[in-house]
Design goal:
The structure is a homodimer. By secondary structure, chain A is of the alpha/beta class. Helix content of chain A is about 40%, strand content about 25%. The first copy, chain A, has 3 domains: about 170 residues, MoaB/Mog-like domain (Molybdenum Cofactor Biosythetic Enzyme, Chain A, 3-Layer(aba) Sandwich), CATH 3.40.980.10; about 80 residues, Alpha-Beta Plaits (2-Layer Sandwich); about 160 residues, Maf protein.
């Protein structure tokens, strides 16, 4: 099955935001064996929206749009698509009712402008959107389909997964053929060092392709099977992933969307152990990473953000003399921070981070990017110094990931 | 001047990478007064590349492509564009020589596959690319122009700035003409309610256009001047922004890329006041937001992530009886958390957040998304209950922004 995507928004053509919806649509549709033959972006202008959607419809007969469904006047997709199908917009009583209920639940009166969100092209199927006010719309007539989704990424993703993909699977044109990827996630090793370890695997895994994808969480190894039968793709991907895992060894922390924080929480939960953190340069991001995992509260007790040195002393019990002798960014201080957090929260495991995230504060001995990390589990402790590249945001993100990885490796040696 | 952009790459339609070239092209061309009327993305397939470029050329007569200029499998953009212009590909001696020199400099032998990179459509202008092996190409005939740029972002940006924009400016159609935007940032008010306050301003500001851009940090109001003379655009944008600020009133916290955390830090720094935070459901994100601002350490002392109830009691001094009587997500507890942080860190200002970020933990009285926020400044305190929509990540991001906004508003009433 083939289709086209039209993403609508002036901010997209002016380069004011990245088109993350294009990524989500591309990935999810490919996984479902659907080929996107073309993707078009146009500004919030009626004539441009109509031309782009009508041309895409003429070429492939199936178009998914994102954006232009909000309550304000710059949102015009619905009207233009209705015109292409020569249908009037009519008020949908069920949509109006669910909108009114939504506002009641949030304890607010519904503004009149939201009423237009209850208008749909006559005969359209309404795709309920529990995450927002604009429902998705599926307009179909004589083998021509336009599916309109909202531009807010979380709403778009929800509707795609819950309403659009099941309907597309039901059309039966994609039976058995997939474009499918599998990802092995590594951290704590640079891309070039990882490439040396993995070696020239590309010929062995052909026709699968391999990509190295570095980011602040490490280097992902992604193998892709292109338009193979599902069983063949799965068999080849499993074999390639097993080979990659074997070669990358202890640097692998999971597959697909595995999150190192979730991995750590699972390991601790299995041992009935609890965790606390002490943060300086990450300023709360490490706690934020951990608590981003639903259900983290049974393992994570809390943390202390000790941004000022007197807080390291008063709340974490780091001796002032230690800070004076070695500096706040040192092995001695990071170990004392971890011990202080462990004791203060009365927990089994503790992580600590202290470093220089920049842009200021670097010296010759301790340049910007210098970070000391520590992990404690019971009486075992480990500290590590890293010098991270990147800007302030990247250094902080890499620091949080490296702290989690230090605990993973410590637990591995103790297991 | 108007043109279309065609970005070429299978990874783009499969959603494996974000199209950052689209952002760079959109931003740079808009600043130069060029309007991108449509942007198209296609896979590395000859027929699709040719159709997309030819159609774009028919519509606007000027097309910029990115991608498909590499040395191997994807060396197809050049061939398809040459075919559209009915020109042969010929070996360019100067390009070949500079390629050979480049390889010599890197101490490597030039692979035979790179020779094809020296082939150009007959009559094309070669745009030198010092950052990579593929030069840009400018093909022009009878008022039809196709400019081909490599897909590697740093090479694309370099060629755009150094070779393409100067040539476009030299065409004289864009002298002094710009597409320019201005953004007024609001928070603490829903899109539809904001639209009611702003009213039907679109007619008054025409030919400028207005877009409402909601996100977890609030609703941005973006006005855009399309292809006006620069002085005219600036004058109209300033007038429109002033009107929007007046109508949106106290909900405005800044313009352009203003960050509410930076705004708060500036306000506190001016009064020589220091800040601490107490976080439950945000788990460190609020501290993370604040410390993302370079130089935050002179204002921000630190924070306590009190994820477990006993931490709220032991580290923040919240009476256990209060938690028992009202629940951890309550006005009483959030105010006690803020007071505890203020006292514990010995600071002037404190923020506290406690809520139910989901997906579990909601009740009829306190559904998922219920968040209590508190701000303290000296002896003044304010608490606020909000019920945020969205998933766990959005609820947490909105909570951090709302906490910062509560302090902004409290400082406004005390000023």
């Amino acid at each position: 099955m083939k289709l086209e995507v039209v993403t609508i928004g002036t901010e997209l053509v002016l380069g004011q935001i990245l088109d993350t919806n294009a990524v989500d649509l591309g990935r999810e549709l490919a996984a479902a064996g659907v080929e996107i033959v073309r993707r078009t972006s146009v500004a919030d202008r009626p004539d441009m929206i109509r031309a782009a959607v009508a041309e895409a419809l003429d070429r492939t007969g199936f178009v998914i749009t994102t954006g232009g469904l909000g309550p304000t006047r710059d949102d015009m997709t619905k009207k233009e698509v209705a015109a292409i199908f020569e249908k009037p917009l009519i008020l949908d009583a069920a949509v109006l009712q669910s909108l009114e209920e939504r506002f009641r639940r949030l304890g607010r009166a519904m503004p009149a402008s939201n009423r237009t969100q209850a208008e749909v092209p006559a005969g359209a199927t309404v795709l309920p959107n529990p995450r927002g006010t604009a429902p998705g719309l599926w307009v179909e007539e004589a083998d021509r389909v336009v599916v309109m989704l909202p531009g807010v990424p979380s709403e778009m993703r929800g509707l795609l997964a819950e309403e659009v993909l099941p309907r597309i699977a039901g059309r039966g044109e994609t039976a058995g053929i997939v474009v499918r990827s599998r990802t092995v996630r590594t951290t704590g090793i640079a891309e070039s060092a990882l490439a040396e370890r993995v070696g020239a695997i590309e010929d062995e895994i052909a026709p699968l392709t391999l990509a190295y994808l570095p980011s602040s969480s490490g280097v992902d190894l992604r193998v892709t099977a292109w338009r193979l039968r599902v069983e063949d793709a799965e068999r080849r991907l499993a074999a390639a992933a097993a080979q990659l895992r074997a070669r990358a060894g202890e640097h692998v922390y999971g597959e697909e969307n595995a999150d190192l924080a979730a991995t750590i929480l699972d390991l601790l939960r299995a041992n009935r152990q609890r965790l606390a953190v002490a943060e300086s340069c990450t300023g709360g991001l490490l706690g934020g990473r951990i608590t981003a995992v639903p259900g983290s509260s049974d393992v994570f007790a809390g943390g202390i953000v000790a941004y000022a040195d007197d807080v390291k002393r008063d709340l974490l019990g780091v001796p002032a003399a230690l800070i004076k002798a070695h500096g706040a960014v040192s092995e001695e201080v990071v170990l004392a921070m971890a011990a202080g957090a462990q004791q203060r929260f009365g927990v089994d495991a503790a992580l600590a981070v202290t470093g220089i995230a920049g842009p200021g504060g670097g010296t010759v001995d301790k340049p910007v990017g210098t970070v000391w990390l520590a992990a404690r589990l019971g009486n075992a402790a480990r500290a590590l110094r890293r010098v991270f590249p990147g800007d302030r945001g990247e250094i902080r993100a890499r620091s949080a990931q490296a702290a989690l990885d230090l605990l993973r490796r410590l637990m591995g040696t103790l297991a």
